[in-house]
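Instructor's aside before we start: the two examples that follow are unrelated to each other. I chose them only because their records fit on one page, so don't look for a connection. First example below.
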Amino acid sequence: MATTKKATTTKKKLDSHKLISLYMDYVLENEHAPKTVYKFCKENGIAEEEFYNFYGSFEGLEKGIWEAFYLNTIGVIEKSPEYPGFSNREKMLTFYYTFFEVLTANRSYVLFTLKKESTRMKNLEQLKGLRKNVKSFAKGLIQDDNKEKSLKFLQQPEEVFSESAWIQLLFLLKFWMDDNSAQFESTDVAIEKSVNTVFDVFDNSPLERVVDFGKFLYKERMVK
């Protein structure tokens, strides 16, 4: 990634991390993506078939970069001896804080790649693998929490929670991209407030939410 120097030879064995670093360096130095795999490989002194050992296209490589960001994040938080004892709220906060530290270390590339297309949907295409991983992470948290609840109606819907975590990440990503505060302190505040809000909602049981919704409907009917 950003901390890896560009290679000019294949004397060292090529792997996905090296390929990612070469691609990110190319994009940042040339201010555009490579035109063809052939030219990219030739410029970096690697055989074209070596590229295809890891990715079938630049689109696949770009998705791989976001998955690498995710795996880097997980690797960092799992090294913390305190992490296993964290509450689900603390684990989610730790994930977001660490993930955006990883993004900040690669901010120039992230800003370029998320703004290169004219349509937002095309830019989000590269996040498909990340979406799957983030939803899986969030689903794991809610599954652990549900195991501790003996009554099924007190358990939280895994799919709803995991999807909300992904939407939350997209919101935070946009916030971080637009953040001009020193050391992106405003993003840290946004992470804390948004995570606490989501968990405050999910800490209420489904039954309580139904009751609250019922009260709302009752008041609406009484007003009309």
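Example two begins here.
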Amino acid sequence: MDEPQWLNADELEAWKALAGVLFLLPTALDSQLQRDSDLAMADYMVLVILSERDGRSMRMTELATSANTSQSRLSRIVARLEAAGYVTRQMAPDDRRAVLATLTEAGMAKLVAAAPGHVAQVRKLVFDRLSPAQVASLNEVARALSNPDDSATCEIST
């Protein structure tokens, strides 16, 4: 086995800082959403994605891609949201092999109710600590990291 290409000092410091964020943010954001809205972070993000689509509907395969998750994980998330009445699933009228997920009025109301607390938590934990230049850098870095190559998979958790 070849020797790994070890991180240099700058890379190691950056990695440790990012790893700290990866521990902090999901827990803090998920806790706030669970406490205030009885939603998991993954549930909230699926509701957001659907809310931004025309007709508040999209194919499950496209939704999985947009959410950076697998089909099976998305199915579990959507099943949970469907049981709560926030999303419906139905066959696509133009392709009986495809399934559409659609945000219901109750789902939109849940999202509207959850958004202020979530945004306040995101602002407190992230954006209140950054300058405009750092926000621009964060956007650039996050976009680069959220588009993994074909050899890696990045998923939202359930």
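The domain at 24-145 is CATH 1.10.10.10 (Arc Repressor Mutant, subunit A).
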